[in-house]
Structure formats: C-alpha cells, structure tokens
Design goal:
- The protein is of the alpha/beta class.
- The protein folds into two domains: 173 residues, Alpha-Beta Complex (Aspartate Aminotransferase, domain 1), CATH 3.90.1150; 250 residues, Type I PLP-dependent aspartate aminotransferase-like (Major domain) (Aspartate Aminotransferase, domain 2), CATH 3.40.640.10.
- Helices cover 36% and strands 18% of the residues.
- It is built from 13 helices and 18 strands.
- The strands form five sheets. A seven-stranded mixed sheet has the order 6-14-13-12-11-7-10, sandwiched between helices. Strands 3-4-5-17 form a four-stranded mixed sheet. Strands 15-16-18 form a three-stranded antiparallel sheet.
- Helix 2 packs antiparallel against helix 9 and helix 3 packs parallel to helix 9.
- The protein starts with a helix and ends in a 5-residue tail after the last helix.
- The structure holds pyridoxal-5'-phosphate.
- Pyridoxal-5'-phosphate binds next to helix 4.
Amino acid sequence: MNRVVEQYKRACNSLAGGVSSSTRVNQALGHAMLFDRAEGCRIWDLDGREYIDLCCSHGATLLGHGDPRVREAVERVLARGAACSYENELHAELAELLCETVPCLERVRFTGSGTEATMHCIRLARAVTGRTKLVRFEGNFHGYHDQVMWGTIDGLGQVTPDLAPQSAGVTPGLDQHLLQIPYNRPDLLEEVFATHADDIAAVICEAVYYNAGCVKPTEEFIQAMRRLTTQHGSLLIFDEVLSAFRMCAGGAQQYLGVTPDLCTIGKSVGGGHPLSVFGGRADLMKRLMPEGDCQHSGTNNGHPVPVAAGGAALRAYRDAEFYPHIHRVAEHLCSGLIGLFERHQVPGRVQWLGARFGIYFGIDEEVRNFADAQKHDRNMMLKFIAAAIDNGVYFHDYGGGAVHHGFCHAMQESDVDEALERLDPAVRQLTPA
Ligand SMILES: Cc1ncc(COP(=O)(O)O)c(C=O)c1O
C-alpha cells in the first residue's frame, strides 16, 4: 500500500470520512489525495509523485503554491506575534486596496470562508431592505449554510421549481424564502419580479458561473438583473467567491461592466490562506454593528496571517503584467486541450475565461446554464481525471454535477506543453472504439 492510501485510511479512523471537508475526497480516485509539498504550479504527493496542478486548491491558489511574496508577508506578521482577534494596520491597508480595485467596494468586512461571506451578505441585504426573499439561479453555488443549500428536485429549467435541501439537517422550510430560475433567462427574471417584486430583498448570482465549469452571463441577462433590482428597490449581490481576480483585478463585475450593490470575494483573495470578504456600498455596509444593528462578528475574522497574505496577493494581481500572462496561458492550455480532443476524436468541449475552465465530455454546443451542464458525460470525466492523475496532472472531481478546473500565474507556457504531453494518453484512452 502506498503512503497516500495508508495515511488516508489512518485518517478515516479519527477524522470523519478521512477528510476535513467532504468534497476533498476525489471521486475519480475514491479517496482524498494527500500532498506533501507544493511549489508554483506543481504538487508532490506523500509518495513523492509530482503533478502539474490544474485544480489549484479549488481556486484558492491563483499566484502559485508557496509564492515568495506571500511567504515573506506571512513571515513578517508571524515575527510580530500574529496577534489573533485584534486589528492592526494591515487590515486597513488591505481594505483600501480592495476598495481601489473592485468596483462596488466602498466598505468591506473580512470573514474566514466563502460560506460565511454569503451568509453575512444575505443577512445584511435582508436587514437593509426589510424583505426576505432571495432570487437565485439554478445550480449557482453559494456555500454550505442553510439559506442557500437548496437544489432542484423537480422542474429543472423552470421558474420556482420544487426545491429540496442539499444536505440532511438543513432547516426545513427555508426554501419559502427562495425564488429560483435558470441562469441566462432574463425573461424569467422579469416574470419573477412581476409577481414578487415587493418581497425580494436581493438577487444573488455567480457573475461568471464557474461552478458549472465556465458559463458567462449574456449581456441581456446581466443588464436585466441590474435594471430590475434598481427599479424595485432590491439589492444585487455578485457572489465572486470564485470569480474575483480570475480574469481581471476588478473581477467579473469589472469584466462585465456591471456594478452590484454588494459582493462576496473568497478563495484567491487570501493568496492561498483562509480569507474571504463581503462588502459594497458604504450606505449599506453602515447597517453592520457597531454603527448599525446587523451583526457580523467572529473571533478569527481578519486573522493577521491571511490578511497579510491577502495584501501580498492583491498587490501581485494589480501588477500590469499579471493578466496578460493569465490570458496567454489560458489560450495556450485550452486550445491545446481542444486540439487533444480533436486528435483523438473524443467529444470534449472546453469553455474558459481567465484562469478557470470547464471540460464537458459528450456536449458539442455552448453550455449556458445548469441544465446544459448536467448533460455532460460524467463517467467519461471520471475516467479522464483518474487517467490524468495517473499521468501526472492533478484534476479534482467533487462529486455531482460539472466541475471546474484552473491554473495559477506561476504556470508558464512550457508547463502547459508538458501538461498536454502528459494528458495525451489520458485522452487517447477515451477514443471511441
Ligand atoms: C461562488 C461560491 N460561493 C461560495 C462558496 C463557498 O466558499 P467556501 O468553500 O470558502 O465556504 C464557493 C466555494 O466553492 C463558491 O464557489
């Protein structure tokens, strides 16, 4: 037995399911992958096998593993004692940088995870508007709290289908506060506002729907969201936990040219350390305690280590060279993957924007929403991921629907060439007989 499997089995005796996070079991392997060390775009497992990382910490690693700028910032704050649960000057520095960089941000708050960020943002939206209903889009992912862990059981692709909790233990009935419609359907958004406008606190969306691989909103859809929320006194929340910094420093809102009232930011904001942010218009954020009456607090919020790491990461994202490199590598990698699929006559589609991409086996038309993405050939994806890992490229399968992949800034075009070479046999074995 190799060390990865041995240590995973050991973990199963004391760590529930052998992991710290349910989705960390890679469904293509049937166990979690255990890594020993990581540098740049490469990771080494406990047995010393090296992989090119195309999961990139599910999006948290955008600079690259062990980035020296992040490490220095962390070491500096550790040397000062990293006093937990207190503020220092790094908090204001990072808050200022975020407000300069992301269009909707006039005030921010720090939290620990994307889940906390969306939870607090939704509470704030309800506090400010005095309304309870939340419009959300089929398949968009907003974390693991009870308000948002609801999925379609019947009526996929329709207005307000039957929803069911996506986990045991979710408080029954919370779906009465949700109005769900498919992504990229401005006509259905109009319909929902026509019947429920007075009750709608907010529309929350993945401004680029990366959780289904990579789905861009149409211009008409995103403009309808902005127009209808403004017209009816509801708030527009962009959940940019995954999309922030992915294609430009100002995130999806800058890329799309639409400014929401509030947004959430997670994953890459901490430069690989646990940090997330919610924020937006100053007049809305004033409602938070101690200025207002809406609670947001937490012992570990704004821990100095992730805040220091976040400052170093954000300075790197603001560098003029950062995004031209990301877009060059994206083009090289994704067109290379398409070339591989064509060469081996494998029905694989690739959609990408910036540093994240989706692969859809068995689909040849553009994926525009959750229902489209659900049509992908999951067995083929699992076979591909298992073979890719066997050949030294790490992808992750979370279980369930379409999955997203990504690369980091440390990845060079020569690394892409090497990854494509390693992936050749993984694609070849999918060729129809
Ligand atoms: C868009 C979006 N929102 C929220 C979350 C939840 O973030 P976290 O896993 O940090 O709690 C995720 C995580 O994948 C996400 O992609």
